[in-house]
Amino acid sequence: MFGCLVAGRLVQAAPQQVAEDKFVFDLPDYENINHVVVFMLGTIPFPEGMGGSVYFCYPDPSGLAVWQLLGFVTNEKPSAIFKISGLKSGKGSEHPFGAMNLPQTPTVAQIGISVELLESLAQQTPVANAAVSSVDSFTEFTQKMLDNFYNFASSFAVTQAQMTPNPSEAFIPANVVLKW
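The line above is the sequence of Protein Hikeshi; the predicted structure tokens follow.
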């Protein structure tokens, strides 16, 4: 029903089912993870009026599990990207995994998905740092592309003093754009 993806790693498409309505993915070496994608596989939709709360769990220095709400997935929003890199030092929140004795090791975190009523999902408040940029992807791509272009092209800049008179102007050869 669910999948989990971390950049540079294989897709996890078989969560461990720890209760009838709760699923867990293990994230080894979680200290090196910045973002995680949680998605529905498309094989089994949520029952009508249901969705899934997504939680991040990591072991605190004493070895206790710290659970933080990241957000949710639903039939209408079947995937979400969450930033977890800044969450590894926060406080836990109320979560539905508390009564379960899930094994924790020092270098393994977990993503938990709890199937709940949509009304319950709407009332939950995710941890603030988990949301990924709210700028639309085209705008973000355009900004990053132009920054990249500027940095690349300006690395080839020479002053007029290095070429001909008028030392107050910088010159960027046109073939630099072709190389880019």
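Note on the example: The helical segments are 118-123, 137-154, 160-163, 175-179. DSSP finds four helices and ten strands in the chain.
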